[in-house]
Amino acid sequence: MTSAYPTPLDVLADQVRDLAADLGEWPSRNRVIKTFKVGAPKASAVLDTVKASGFDPANPVVDDGPEDANEIAAPTETDAVNPGPEITSEVIEESGAGTSSTKVSAPADPEPTPDAPTRSERSEVGWRAHSWALLLIAAGAFVAIWGGWVGLGKLTGFGEIALLPGIADEFTIDSAITLPLGVEAYAAFALRVWLSASRSDRARKFARNSAIGALVLGACGQVAYHLMTAAGMTSAPWQITTPVSCLPVVVLGCAAALTHLMRDEEGR
Description:
The chain is mostly helical.
């Protein structure tokens, strides 16, 4: 959720400059949107501002101190709070000689500390850990959903068809696979747009309604197939065949509408 008090452009430019220096390259507009919770126009504006300033993320400018080697910087408040390592001195007196000398010991070099991982590295490691669980869940759901939709398609009249009749009659395909490819793939696509914070309210609203509708249709299709299979039916009644036969057309229309909404938004 974005803040009610938006970040000023100059402050956001410094944050984007630090992110680019950590990455060693320019972040994408979507990366800026997700990292700093800003809209697409502001993300584009801050990227243009930082690039126009001459900043190079591959070779960040480092301040080497004052140009004059003889110039001595005055102590600051930070130096007073965090003084440098203390140099200890030890007075050595020579017996009988009446002379003394001072021995100065230099501070020991601090032990090197390992660099902490950047935010992008931590997020990438976390995504890898979550993706394994998602792939495992998706594999089990894919087998069940695919089998249910293909079986329902056969009960409602879907089957092998010749894609090139009269040209290559032997090249056939089972049209029942269009049901899981269309309905379930669109449900995942619309769900992704719905949960994306960088999309407009209009696109997210359409994606939300159509994603819920696709998931409900998918659940109803699985229920209908298993009920008819358990009852020993070899063909579906017309009340089920009619909506199932219209699903490819409905899914195509929803996918085209959502794509146009997203392209209109990016073109503004």
